[in-house]
Specification:
Length: 323
């Protein structure tokens, strides 16, 4: 039997109130309801350590589902830094809302413990990615935008690509800034918006920037170039990829980033397929973990915790499917 209308109305009011409270814990907002990502610690760009080239001297700590960690993992992979930097994958612990080590690491069972041991404050979030120095026994940097710059300068094999060559710096920085705000953080601003106006603002900026990137890539293709800023992939391409590869699988269904399916931005669709085909990139893509972590862990957005079936990743990176 259908419950009485008054009961439904009361339940909606109560849920709305509880929802705002739960969202407060998950995703802080400004007075207008726009998501504001909290600041962490260890955000400055450190110098390249003297012992950077020593085997296993550093550890890159990543979570599979995290797009910010994904960009660092990509740079590590594209520049083949495995000889000097180990990659350690942490697992989410949705009940406790933190990252935990599969095996104790440096005597810690959670990333938060390692973070505090490095001097991070209790109120600051212990986030991935983090770069740990075994010699100095501390986190060197915990902000992905700086971490990828550090990894781009890290000593590497002579044939390893540089992803932010000085000659292309201006264009790379321009796109990186646009993507950081409107796309990488933009999908979260859509998903974590507290009201319609905040969502509308974020969603408009997101698709405006994606359309501009699509046009820019179209121009590049006409010139015979495959990448956004330079003949080779750059940090601008790197930072766009983790968000776009999660679009249909997570951000469209869960965060409401669904104005255009990516095949309607055909140059971006082809670009994503090209990037996915680069050596080592597919190993950093874990669609099962993305979907189970996002749908399973973001309770206020998806209280049932049911992980819906999604499109097959292999079809999303098939450039033949779109003219
Ligand atoms: N600004 C940071 C953001 C990183 C971030 O928010 N990572 C999330 C996973 S996607 C995280 O670890 N969150 C754990 C927490 O907030 O406690 C960066 O770019 O490195």
């Amino acid at each position: 039997m259908r419950p009485p209308a008054a009961l439904i109305q009361t339940a909606r009011g109560l849920w709305r109130c509880q929802w705002q409270q739960l969202m407060g814990g998950l995703a802080p907002a400004d007075a207008s309801g726009r998501y504001r990502r909290p600041a962490g610690a260890f955000t400055a760009l450190p110098p390249v350590p003297a012992a950077a080239a020593s085997a296993g001297g550093h550890v890159l700590i990543v979570g599979r589902s995290c797009p910010w960690a994904h960009r660092a993992w990509l740079v590590h992979s594209l520049r083949q830094l495995g000889g000097s930097i180990d990659v350690l994958v942490v697992e989410p612990d949705p009940a406790a809302g933190r990252w935990r080590f599969v095996e104790p690491f440096e005597g810690c069972s959670t990333l938060a413990q390692l973070y505090r041991r490095s001097g991070g404050e209790r109120r600051q979030p212990a986030t991935v990615p983090a770069l740990w120095s075994r010699q100095e026994q501390r986190i060197l940097v915990n902000e992905s935008a700086r971490l990828i710059e550090l990894l781009d300068r890290w000593p590497a094999a002579a044939d390893a690509p540089r992803l932010a060559p000085d000659t292309e710096r201006e264009a790379i920085d321009h796109w990186r800034q646009r993507f950081q705000d409107d796309v990488n953080d933009g999908v979260y601003r859509c998903g974590f918006a507290r009201n319609q106006a905040a969502y509308n603002e974020a969603e408009t900026a997101l698709f405006q920037t994606l359309q501009e990137a699509d046009q820019a890539l179209l121009e590049q293709e006409r010139r015979g170039q495959a990448w956004l800023c330079s003949p080779e992939p750059s940090l601008a391409d790197v930072v766009l990829f983790p968000t776009l590869i999660r679009l249909e699988l997570v951000y469209a269904p869960l965060f409401g980033c669904s104005r255009l399916p990516l095949w309607q931005l055909p140059a971006l669709w082809r670009w994503r397929a090209r990037f996915f085909a680069l050596a080592g990139v597919s190993d950093t893509c874990c669609p099962e973990a993305w979907r189970s972590d996002y749908f399973g862990a973001l309770f206020p957005l998806h209280p049932s915790g049911i992980v819906p079936a999604g499109p097959d990743l292999s079809r999303l990176v098939n450039s033949q499917l779109v003219p």
